């Protein structure tokens, strides 16, 4: 098991992340960014979820506020990339918590 650097993941941070990912179009944008080899603008990303660029931009703004994506301005364009490390860390923390749930209790009952 890989030991991750300490990055506090509070319950509120996790709730905010899951809320951001819990909307179909935003999750579609995240999936699209997972497939991209390079950062993309909203116009390129909007095709994955059948919304126009302005709607995609709004969803990307929410994702950026929650740290799911990073936004960089290039002239008049905003370019988005997935913040893989932070998102993976938070989701891994939740998965580890779920996998560990009840293990102490089950070990005690086996004895």
UniProtKB/TrEMBL annotation:
SMART domains: HTH_ARSR (SM00418). Keywords: DNA-binding, Transcription, Transcription regulation. One of its GO terms (molecular function) is DNA-binding transcription factor activity. Residues 6-102 form the HTH arsR-type domain. The keyword Transport does not apply. NCBIfam families: HTH_metalloreg. PANTHER family: TRANSCRIPTIONAL REGULATOR, ARSR FAMILY, TRANSCRIPTIONAL REPRESSOR SDPR. This is HTH arsR-type domain-containing protein. It comes from Parahalioglobus pacificus.
């Amino acid at each position: 098991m890989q030991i991750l650097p300490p990055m506090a993941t509070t319950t509120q941070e996790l709730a905010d992340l899951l809320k951001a990912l819990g909307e179909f179009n935003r999750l579609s944008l995240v999936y699209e960014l997972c497939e991209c080899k390079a950062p993309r603008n909203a116009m390129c990303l909007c095709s994955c979820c059948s919304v126009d660029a302005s709607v995609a931009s709004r969803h990307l703004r929410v994702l950026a506020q929650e740290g799911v994506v990073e936004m960089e301005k290039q002239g008049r364009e905003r370019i988005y990339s997935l913040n893989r490390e932070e998102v993976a860390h938070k989701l891994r923390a939740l998965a580890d918590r779920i996998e560990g749930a009840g293990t102490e209790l089950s070990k005690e009952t086996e004895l």
